[in-house]
Write a structure and sequence with these properties.
The chain has one domain: Cupredoxins -  blue copper proteins (Immunoglobulin-like), CATH 2.60.40. The chain contains 1 helix and 10 strands; from the N terminus they run αββββββββββ. The longest helix is centred in the first third of the chain and has 11 residues. A hairpin with a 2-residue loop joins strand 2 and strand 3.
Length: 128
Amino acid sequence: MRWLPPALCACLLVFPGCGKDDAPPTRSVTLGPGEPVRVSAEEYAFDPSRITIRPGRRPLRVVLDNRGDLAHDIKVLDGERELGGLPSFPGGEKRSTTVAVPPGSYRLVCTVADHEELGMDGELEVIR
């Protein structure tokens, strides 16, 4: 049993910080009327992940900057219903679209493979 503590210490040195605690920090932004929603995508996160939009002109312009190595997309969901978004496109590209969203709370997700389960999701709130 004398080998157990050194072995555990070695594991901690080799595999520091595994799990959810290593998730990238979430950033929130509040946008004024008519400002585009600008989101960066990397494996496997959106930045910002929380967006609040003050009342103003609709539809919203959504800009996705894919800074990752993999293809990503972005969809605006109301529950399970898709309101709009962008199809997947390769890393290193930037694309935009418009999405009509009434005041309310929505989910932003990447629907490529298991990216949403890996953390590529966010929140969009449009204030009345």
